[in-house]
Amino acid sequence: MTVDVICPYCNCAIDEAQESVQACAACGTRHHAECWQDNNGCTVYGCTAAPPDEPKLTVQTTDFARPAVQPTPMFMGQPVPQPVTANYAPPPPPPRPVPPPPPASTSYAPPPPPPWQVPAPPPAATGYAPPPAPYAPPPPPPPQYAPQMTFGGYAVPAPPVPPPMAFHPPMQVRSKSRTTFILLGIFLGAFGAHNFYAGYKGRAIAQLAITICTVFICSIISWIWAIVEVCIVDRDARGISMT
Question: Looking at the domain 1-64, which fold is it?
Answer without folding.
Answer: Herpes Virus-1 (3.30.40)
